[in-house]
Amino acid sequence: MMEAKPKRRIVTENGDTGEDLVLATLIGNGDDVGPLVRHAFEMGRPEPLVHQLKNVARKKEAEIEDLCKTHYEEFIVAVDELRGVLVDAEELKSDLASDNFRLQEVGSALLVKLEELLESYAIKKNVTEAIKMSKICVQALELCVKCNSYISEGQFYHALKTMDLIERSYLKLIPLKVLKLVIERRIPVIKTHIEKKVCSQFNEWLVHIRSSSKNIGQTAIGLTASARQREEEMLERQRRAEEQNTGGLGESAYTLDVEDSEQDSVLKFDLTPLYRAYHIHTILGVPERFRDYYYENRLLQLQSDLQISYTQPFVESYQTFLAQVAGYFIVEDRVIRTAGDFLLADQVETMWETAISKIVAILENQFARMDSPTHLLLVKDYVTLLGTTLRQYGYEVGPVLDALDKSRDKYHELLLEECRKQIVTAITEDTYQQMVIKKEADYENNVLSFNLQTSDIMPAFTYIAPFSSMVPDVCRIIRSYIKGSVDYLSYGVNTNFFSVLRKYLDKILIDVLNEVILETISNNSIGVSQAMQIAANISFLEKASDYFLRHAAQLCGIPSRSVERPQASLAAKVVLKTSRDAAYLALLNVVNTKLDEFMKLTENVNWTTEEMPQGPHEYINEVVIYLETVMSTAQQILPMDALYKVGVGAIEHISNSIVSTFLSDSIKRFNANAVSAINHDLRVIENFADERYHSSGLNEIYKEGSFRSYLVEARQLINLLSSSQPENFMNPVIRERNYNTLDYKKVATICEKFKDSADGIFGSLANRNTKLTAKKKSMDMLKKRLKEFN
């Protein structure tokens, strides 16, 4: 060890530099010397580096040599051991060679067997694969046979599912290209065949469902009509129960019968062919094409259904036409509700709009052609049933109801004209004699039914009604008009149509009934009995107008109390009252004309007689007899107010006739004897007026307006002409008390004619120089003062 150190120092001394030490350190540490080499070559001075490397190599060799010298003994031992190992390895190699030989001898036979085994395995694999491929082909062929069987049996859905199974699970696995190619070519052909067959079956269903639509629609509309009838019957029972309760008949309960109508609401028709066709087309991947095909064909069917035949009257074909449309859209509703997304709501809406516009056009055209209210009502009723039926399925039927509402006036015009003819017939054929009722049933039908009774007590039969047969006949006509109007207005646009009905009720009463009555009244050939009976009839028709209003309210479902108020009465009631007054005037005109024929004062009275009259003129007895007949008949027929008007009118006319006769130009002069005779006549009339006024019971009603009071002008005139001091007329107090109804001008004219002397030239000459009496002086004074006053 001590010898080694001098040697290292010698090396250093022999030329080691600092760079050599750095390089030796890098190599000793295992660092990369590449950068130093690269740098040396880049600098163009590799020689120093090579020299340094050589120095490092020499140094390392010296170190190895020192190390070997230090451990040489150990190295010799290791070499000996290595030689021993080589000997053992040779022995082991000899043993391995011997074992390998024996193994080769034994393994040769096994290798032959292994090769045979592997060959067997290969054959088995091929056979298994062949079996598997054969099974696939057999299964595919079995499915093809099954598919053909399904097609022949018409089970197209199963056939398509089988083909789908073949395509998805077998077609790619079929090893035989020929078989695979055949199947691939036949599948599209089979699908096309199935599609054609399904479309053919669907077309047959289209024909069938169209032919069934009429029955479907008629059944549905019939169910709606039955439901409507049940509802009307229920409302009628309810109305009767309310009337009984109102009439004070005690507790009267009613129940609402509710029937199970679920079965009625189910219409049975088969949509299976449609579902099958749509499902198959969906499986075929062409659902849109089938949807379009269905929509186009159904739209063509609808357009055909909406065509009407003009060779057949519409009133004979409207039910078939409307039922066909109803059945069509009931089917469409079922389709859209049960077939999923097959039919779109917009498509159904388009079809409905097409149908509704066509129906409205047809109805408006046909309504314009109709001239019978019955036909129009029949069509209207069926149309409303159609609307109610289809509204249950969600269809908007407003335009159809609007079309009905537009024809409302047309219907009522036809109905009004029909009723006009009936009313004219009833009035013209009336005998104007009081109606004789012999049975209670006739009394109920002709009197109680229209609230025409004058007493709540059932009369004894035979009963003589105060009206003629025209009144119940007209009431029945008006009642039928109300029923016809309600039938048309019901189930229309306006649910509360009472105001509309009221307008039409006023129209028939005013424009028809009242006009016919006025035409009858204006007829110059009308007699006293006729005029009196007409006036009585109008009074009862006026009373019946309240019944008409209540009846209309009941049919409209309006509470009776709402129309029983005075302000709720019909305008026709006022018009009929005016016509009744016109009838009274016509009656009075006839009576007055007859009175004028009886009286004829200018002919029946000697206005310048020299004899004092001993009593009334003969004509006055005829007047009284006539008045007695008129008043007796009027008391039996007319109400008390009308009786009073007739009596007042006749009495007042007599008074006016007396006064007007004194004023007449045909009377040039008269004397006190003529005044006395008229006074006798007037007293007879006054006595008759008082007797009739009290015997008729009018004195209890009109206490301040007796018949005698309407003779006051004639009485005051006669009293003035008979007065010993006629000049008192000019005294305001006396005139107000005794002569308040006399006119100055009339009195002046009449007094100028008053000559208290006999009618003869000799009488005039004989009395010319006679002393004027006090009465004459008073009369002359009155004449003078009246002239001054005028």
From TrEMBL:
Family of the protein in this entry: Belongs to the SEC15 family.
Protein name: Exocyst complex component
GO annotation (BP), single: intracellular protein transport
Pfam families tied to this protein: EXOC6_Sec15_N, Sec15_C
Keyword Coiled coil belongs to the record: yes
Domain Exocyst complex component EXOC6/Sec15 N-terminal: 52-221
UniProtKB keywords: Coiled coil, Cytoplasm, Exocytosis, Transport
Domain of life: Eukaryota
Residue span(s) of domain Exocyst complex subunit EXOC6/Sec15 C-terminal: 401-753
Gene3D superfamilies: Dsl1p vesicle tethering complex, Tip20p subunit, domain D (1.20.58.670), Exocyst complex subunit Sec15 C-terminal domain, N-terminal subdomain (1.10.357.30)
Main function: Component of the exocyst complex involved in the docking of exocytic vesicles with fusion sites on the plasma membrane during regulated or polarized secretion. Involved in polarized cell growth and organ morphogenesis. During cytokinesis, involved in cell plate initiation, cell plate maturation and formation of new primary cell wall.
Organism: Arabidopsis arenosa (Sand rock-cress)
GO cellular component: cytosol; exocyst; membrane
Localization: Cytoplasm, Cytosol
